[in-house]
């Protein structure tokens, strides 16, 4: 079987409850970091990794996701008619084209967990291992998925980073057996362990390169933490026969599933923009000025 990673799965069916009321009308994946939606960063990362087919596992209540992802010829023509050719070109470059790109939309109608969302893509993936990208894990800098695919040697590979002991309960955590440069060898994973029961501080981040047999494992995986079908549990199930590798990526990760993470990412990108960095600098100066009593 080929080790070429040809398919990327984007689980985007969640309701984004931590961002209500904004996500009542706007899917979480379309929330912008400055002017770029989270899902665009994920699409660009998949493109940089040479992915052939993108499978979006969405929900029927979120048609805006497909509308954003796919090219909108009518909108572009309207922009051109108004003399906004540059903006029309930028939209075309960002979007996926139904003729030129291999794109599939499928649905996860019940919130049964990340593992179930990945399983919903089973009938739509190309041969070989598959990638999974969680858009709300924003990784800036060197494209993470491309790094992982270049280092992939089979089995299951997960992006990983060291977190503080009091943070391990927010993540899947690797049971570490060794280290080889950027690669962490593991013989298992635990989903959201209590700090005193965590096998390590090596947390799993939202990028995966998985052997195709992950779908067989997910098909028989009982519910785990949160009464959901956990991808972490399915990966750990095959540890005896499929090696598990954590990969220390070189980019900077922001947890944009949280308000704090979204703010951090926004401030980081703003600080890199000459015009916006001046706004930040002015704001910080204003905060240090003494305020007179009312």
UniProtKB/TrEMBL annotation:
EC annotation from Swiss-Prot or TrEMBL: 2.7.7.9
InterPro entries given in the database record: GalU_uridylyltTrfase_bac/arc, NTP_transferase_dom, Nucleotide-diphossugar_trans
Domain of life of the source: Bacteria
Nucleotidyl transferase domain location: 13-270
Pfam families with a match to the protein in the record: NTP_transferase (PF00483)
Gene Ontology process terms (BP): UDP-alpha-D-glucose metabolic process
Keyword Transferase belongs to the record: yes
Gene Ontology molecular functions: UTP:glucose-1-phosphate uridylyltransferase activity
Keyword hit for Transferase: yes
UniProt keyword list: Nucleotidyltransferase, Transferase
Catalysis performed (reactions): alpha-D-glucose 1-phosphate + UTP + H(+) = UDP-alpha-D-glucose + diphosphate
Family statement: Belongs to the UDPGP type 2 family.
Protein name listed in UniProt: UTP--glucose-1-phosphate uridylyltransferase
Record organism: Yoonia sediminilitoris
Source organism phylogeny: Bacteria, Pseudomonadati, Pseudomonadota, Alphaproteobacteria, Rhodobacterales
